[in-house]
Amino acid sequence: MDKYDAVIVGTGPAGMGAAFSLLEKKKDISILMIDKAPVSTGGMRNDCKMNFTYPIGFPFEYWDEATADRYLAQVKEFLKPSILPKSNIAVYQSRAEKLGCSLLEIQQTHLGTDGGLRLIQELLKRLQDMGVDISLKEEMLSINGEQKFIETDLREIGYKTILIAPGRHGFHFLQDVMQSLGVRYMDNILDVGVRLETRIEHYPIVKDYYDPKFYFPEKVRTFCTNSGNAHVVKEKYVTERGDIWYSVNGHAYAPDAARNNGLVNFAMLKTVRFTEPLASGQKFAEYLGVMASLMGGGKPLMQRVGDFRMGKRSKTATFNGDLYDFEPSLKDCCPSDISLAMPSKILRYIWSGMKKLDTIIPGILHPSTIMYYPEIKLYANKPEYIDSHFQVVDSVYFAGDGAGTSRGITGAWASGIRASEGMLEHLS
């Protein structure tokens, strides 16, 4: 059996943050990183947009401002980001405050999907050069917490300490791990919403602030703005029963005037916190996704704002000509009526937020604006941690979005560092 001081499951920002932190403090440590994907996964592969200001990316349950700032400083020191400039923010903030909304001023950097891939390759090479064993296309199947080894689809691996950081797509896997280890957890929070796509002239704030963070009443917010050479994409999910559904997302390539399509996309999300007797927010989200897939013939749904306001479904013909003056960047969608698939209360709150946003930045409710559905964020696992370093049982640590310790690249990286400190204490 192969044995390591530290095994890290997941090669996203949480796993990388932990690995580099372990190596910095204990140079002779033996580390193995595994990932079931053929390539390194995680948020850096999709647009690679990073925020460096609390509270973005830091769930209040686990982070106060002082703690987050301390770890963010370490993340910034390591990644050395080039912070994007902002301008005219006070104008938008003043408009938002008059409506009971807020616009957070966040330090951001944006590498684009192509830039993110280059960064991943550089980081993985650095880890390998520092002696880390990296095994892609190797899937963890189970864990034996008493004898301290994991079983993968290729072998058994012993560990002295282990970090499990599978990201949002590892939601079901992480629940299986928690059940096998006897870790109690909650699964009652999720974000449900739409992704809007329009011309940049209808949302000109992106020329002043790349990813504006608007917060509206009723726990609605803007999320993950992309502009320039921006595209809406779909992400595949599979339920425990094997049903396939797709959530939409957005990304943009690095700025390139020759390739810009002149579009902007961003999500409007409503945070939903369930109470008993709902057993699983994850399953609720899956039912929403499967229902949308059923309506769309296996595809996500899309609807023009002009049709939505008139209470009628969009059709293929409404995506061409006249007021509808741009083609959707995600063509593999079904024109439909999202009000038939989205819970009415959630849709009502999101529509209220959209109207407020159109008052702050007139233009976003242009008839041509596209609403894509569903956009669902599945980071609702809330394990019972036994210490501040995200340890769940002896020598086993979690980190990242899938474990509820973060919401985004920088938060995940910070949670990986925080977990690594506990792992080092365990090893010592």
Name given to the CATH architecture of the largest domain:
3-Layer(bba) Sandwich
- Stretches where pLDDT falls below 50 for ≥5 residues? none
Give the N-to-C terminal Cα separation: 23 Å
Helix proportion of residues, in percent? Answer: 25-40%
Calculate the mean pLDDT score and round it: 92
Account of the 3D structure:
A hairpin with a 3-residue loop joins strand 8 (149-152) and strand 9 (156-164). The protein has 2 domains: 2-83 and 110-186 and 381-427, FAD/NAD(P)-binding domain (3-Layer(bba) Sandwich); 189-377, no CATH class. Helix 1 (13-25) runs parallel beside helix 9. It starts with a strand and ends with a helix. It is an alpha+beta fold and 428 residues long. It has helices at residues 13-25, 65-79, 89-98, 112-129, 171-181, 281-295, 305-309, 344-360, 409-427; strands spanning 2-9, 31-35, 49-51, 102-104, 108-110, 133-136, 140-144, 149-152, 156-164, 185-187, 189-199, 213-216, 220-228, 230-238, 244-252, 263-273, 301-304, 334-335, 370-377, 381-383, 391-393, 396-398.
